[in-house]
Amino acid sequence: MLADLISEFWSSPTYQRIAKALVVAITGIPAVMLISRITGRLLRHRLGQQGGDLLARIVRYSGYVMVLVAVLQEFGFNLAAVLGAAGIAGVAIGFASQTSLSNLISGLFIVGERPFERGDIIEVGTITGTVEDIGLMALTLRTFDNRSVRVPNEMLVKNTVTTVTRYPIRRVDLSIGVAYTEAIDHVMAVLRDVADAHPAVLDEPETVIVFNGFGESSLNFMIGAWTIKEDVLKVKNELPLRIKEAFDREGIEIPFPHRVLAAGKAMEPIPVVVRETKPS
Amino acid sequence: MAATERWHERTLQDGEWLCANFGNLTLVVLSILEEWRVAPLYGEQCAALKDAKMPPDDLPWQRWDRGEKDVKLRFRPVFPDRPVIIRPRSALNLSPRAKAMFYVGIPAFIELTAHSEGQYEVLHSWPSDPPSNTWHGTPISGTLCYSVKTRARRQYVPDDWQEMSIISTLEIANTGSHMLPFERLFFETGHLGVFEHQGRLWANHARIRTGEKDDSLSGVVFGSKPFGEAADAVSLSQPRLGRVRRSMLKEAFSTFLGVTHPHD
Questions:
Q1: Considering CB atoms only, which of A167, A169, A199 is closest to B132?
Q2: Is A205–B263 a contact, with Cβ atoms under 8 angstroms apart?
Q3: What are phi and psi of A216, to 5 degrees?
Q4: pTM of the full predicted structure?
Q5: How large is the ipTM?
Q6: Nearest residue on chain A to B143, judged by CA atoms?
Q7: Is residue B116 part of a domain?
Q8: Maximum CA pair distance of chain A?
Q9: Over the stretch A145-168, which tens digit does the pLDDT of each residue have?
Q10: Do B98 and B162 fall into the same domain?
């Protein structure tokens, strides 16, 4: 009985094709998954987590297409004819999907170049946020007010991208103006003391304090305090407060321009009209 | 020889509290509602505790859960959890084949271990003096370190260091053929234990040999005890990264001597 079934199975070309197709699919899909995983793991060291994942995804999708073609070929699928048609259709599709292809290729450039990693904070145009995902077509950013922004990869290649958290330490720059009556060296000494006393400001690299020149109504200074990237916001918030406190303590005046607004006629003398009363 | 009383095991029943002074740091520990509550206070902040029967609620409390019968705790001095940067009083050039001995005072962290379900667990450690941060390396890569305010000295002057400074002795030998400038020291303290001798804290002695360049370190040898007359000191804490006799901590000690160029 079983022998009859086996004999019938092997004598039928349809069953044979189905069996071959199943073998291709059953062995092909795990093989593709394995190759994709190995590729991802190998490339992760070189291209980072996101780059490795992205290329692994490309390998996986390409592999699935190859397995699908192999399966279809078992059923008489003519690949040459499809490729021929694809050549003609490709021109039309190419024109239609120009932007998508551009995004895809830009994505590959970004993965190769690795200007940032997942978790980095970047600035693209007017958008600042944390990199959530580097996709085939677009990058997903999470802004600080918790919005998700999709930035096409093409835009990342064409525009200036600032990776805010690339390096472990950063300099926080503040501009300060004081009154012309203050001694420049005293102001600089107070600023240095404030920076040195702040626990999040690094001793080295040393805080930069620069006298920036004579302003319209103030002596202008720049203080650049180094801190680890995790403490940037803290230093940005706290240093001006401490500078103000120190200036108040030392009696250093922070001037501000005074303006008097007046309409043209309002500045003229008030007209006085003298009327003589007629004697009754 | 036994350690001084401040490092002994203490017992705190439910509802009791204690106040332990470690130089500039005061640790207030309260055992209440099956919790250890600890408030670190610095300098004048302790004024809030004057004549208090119970510590005020508005202290900066940190809380840990404990078992109902857990009453034991103890304090230990430990080295900071990051490397430290130390500078000599002024730059010193080490001649070829010369040796130089330095005494360095590193502010200790005070570690609190307390019973939790009958077992001692480390709760936390606090700096005896709030350290300032510094960077060892370039703006592109490097290591976050603590900066030691007092300078490394060539001789032991007890008054130079604060009560809770761990006095660490370092012998640096220049085995190279060039003058070696010593302006700063990157000091990785993971293999150093803490000892007590005559009420002062000491670390085991370390000997460092440098080669031709300041970053070609040929080895660090850690003594098992502190240097000189402090050799009979009592051990208080084991090294954070374990006790070793010899280390080739190239990474940890690389460029440990010499001039840095922070703006490179």
A1: A199
A2: yes
A3: -60, -40
A4: 0.71
A5: 0.75
A6: A168
A7: no
A8: 148
A9: 999 999 998 888 888 989 988 899
A10: yes
